[in-house]
Specification:
CATH class of the largest domain: Alpha Beta
Order of helices and strands: HHHHHHEEEEEEHHEEEEHHEEE
Helix content: 25-40%
Largest sheet: 7 strands, antiparallel
Radius of gyration: 19 Å
Number of helices: 10
Shape: globular
Number of domains: 2
CATH architecture of the largest domain: 4-Layer Sandwich
């Protein structure tokens, strides 16, 4: 599965790898690797482990982990837009989050649910090992987990990710996919915010995390992050999705553009978000799970449908989730959400 993905990934093989062999590309690659090795060496080891197990060079795994940064730096807008759509819904009885995940067609059939427990060991002894991380993630073969959907049962957190596209991508900062992987190790909501912010070093690229917090009363939060050029910090803005004040449903939509922070964004990368938001405004506002399924499964639109199976694009919607924070359940859809869930996961 991993070897097949590495062989079939045209953008990796035809764009990223030739670029990192150039003088500029090698400098960027080396700078990002030094930064990750310094701040998150354990995730470098995760990639090395996959490389050793498959016989695929480590450089291919690390270059794949730099997809958000390299796509912007070498201007790959022509390859299409990933179009993740998130919809928050709050009624007097339910708090819901819906998410679609658009990924490269090379990842079709290579997406899976990962349940992981990572423990410390001393001298090979497991008797006294302590759990360092416990999470469930929907992930792709050959990639670090945490970049699409993450669930932390011990602290009652779930999150989904929207790619964001600031014009400025910073060098020798922590790559976005590494930050999202680190979120899976969060101890609580405050710790997750710190991991998003990357204090003392800063993030290389932008993203939005849509976070459900069940540690007490269920909450939904939006956190947007952007790089700060040549400064060892990130910009971060957060906002809680406030409860409905009446029996009618409150709805908030987040796609692949900034809503909270004022950031200069790559214009070509905003076309998909604009069209999906327009289409959502034309559909009945969701007030329950069937309403969310109807919107997340909408295939109308020639270029940028919400549920994208457009054969003209190099990306497609490979899965969707609906999180019911009131019941602490996650519904996973491997096909169009209108067809019903393929898996149901408890949050705790």
């Amino acid at each position: 599965m991993i070897i097949g993905f590495m062989e079939d990934n045209d953008i990796l093989n035809e764009e990223f790898l030739p670029f990192i062999r150039t003088e500029k590309g090698q400098q960027l690659y080396d700078g990002y690797l030094r930064t990750v090795q310094k701040h998150y060496p354990q995730y470098v080891e995760e990639l090395r482990g996959m490389a050793e197990a498959t016989g695929v060079p480590f450089s291919k795994f690390f270059a794949a982990a730099l997809r958000p940064e390299l796509s912007s730096i070498i201007d790959l807008d022509r390859h299409g837009n990933e179009g993740c759509t998130d919809i928050y819904v709050k009624t007097s009885k339910q708090l819901l989050l819906g998410h679609t995940e658009d990924l490269s067609r090379s990842q079709e059939g290579r997406v899976f649910i990962l349940h992981a427990t990572i423990s410390s060991q001393t001298d090979g002894q497991t008797d006294n090992a302590q759990v360092q991380e416990r999470f469930t993630a929907i992930t792709c073969a050959g990639m670090l987990p945490g970049n699409t959907f993450g669930l932390l049962p011990d602290c009652g957190l779930i999150y989904t990710i929207n790619d964001l596209y600031p014009v400025v991508v910073d060098m020798e900062k922590i790559p976005r996919q590494v930050v999202n992987r680190a979120m899976l190790a969060s101890e609580d909501f405050s710790d997750m915010q710190q991991r998003c912010a990357c204090p003392g070093v800063g993030i290389a690229n932008g993203f939005c995390a849509n976070i459900g917090n069940l540690s007490q009363e269920p909450e939904l939060w939006t956190i947007e992050v952007a790089p700060v050029p040549e400064e060892p910090r990130s910009r971060l803005e957060k906002r809680q999705f406030q409860p409905a004040s009446s029996a009618s449903a409150d709805v908030f939509v987040h796609v692949n553009r900034y809503e909270l922070l004022e950031v200069e964004e790559i214009p070509e990368r905003l076309k998909s978000s604009a069209q999906r938001c327009k289409r959502i405004s034309e559909l009945p506002a969701p007030a329950d799970i069937p309403g969310l399924q109807h919107i997340l499964g909408d295939e109308q639109g020639e270029h940028f449908p919400i549920f994208n199976h457009n054969m003209k694009s190099d990306v497609e919607t490979l899965f969707a989730v609906i999180v019911d924070l009131t019941k602490a359940l996650v519904y996973v859809y491997s096909k169009n959400p209108k067809l019903g869930p393929s898996n149901i996961l408890p949050i705790s």
